Amino acid sequence: MQDPDEIVKPFVEEGMSTLDIGCGMGFFSLPMAKLVGEKGRVVCIDLQEKMIEGLLRRAKKAGLADRIDARVCSQSSLGVSDLAGKIDFALVFALVHEVPDKENLFSEIHHTMKPAGKLLLAEPRGHVSKPDFAKTLSVVQSRGFEVIRDLEIRRSHTVLLRALHSSA
């Protein structure tokens, strides 16, 4: 089992605005909500309304609901156009291999990022081969991100990226 606190703690600070894509019932969302503190927020996005409902129940029980912005997305869009340039850190954990339009996914994420915002991307080794992860990385880079470094997360291909923004 992965330790969500250990995974996100090096990248999430008090007051940040963060994005948890494919949040499910909040495995990473709730630890991120604790880390961002009262002035921060976590935008949690999932395709399944039941997952969002479960996340909101858990957030309320943990006293973190005021830091959570939970959204149900569609197959074709994350529904984040209102977040342009507002996100400090985004997490995409064990999700990309299920997304049909990876180019659109990472374009939308890039649109939300502050200059030099960080993206942690992880895919499960059991579902995604090293060559397939390399193809995903190529898509991510074509959408305005650069690799900062590889990360070690058990049973995952993992990389930390930075959003690049043109000065134009």
Give the structure's gist in a few sentences.
The chain is α/β, with parallel strands linked by helices and 168 residues long.
Key terms for this structure?
single chain; 168 residues; alpha/beta; Rossmann fold; 30% strand
Report on this structure:
The chain is globular and about 40 Å long. The mean pLDDT is 96. Helix 2 (29-36) links the parallel strand 1 (17-21) and strand 2. Helices cover 30% and strands 30% of the residues. The longest helix has 13 residues, at 49-61. Strands 3-2-1-4-5-7-6 form a seven-stranded mixed sheet, with helices on both faces. It has helices at residues 4-8, 29-36, 49-61, 102-112, 130-142; strands at residues 17-21, 41-46, 68-72, 87-93, 113-124, 145-151, 156-163. The protein has 168 residues and is an alpha/beta fold. It has one domain: Rossmann fold. The N and C termini lie far apart (44 Å). It has five helices and seven strands.
- CATH fold type: Rossmann fold
Question: Residue share in helices?
Answer: 25-40%
Percent of residues in β-strands:
25-35%
Whole-angstrom Rg: 15 Å
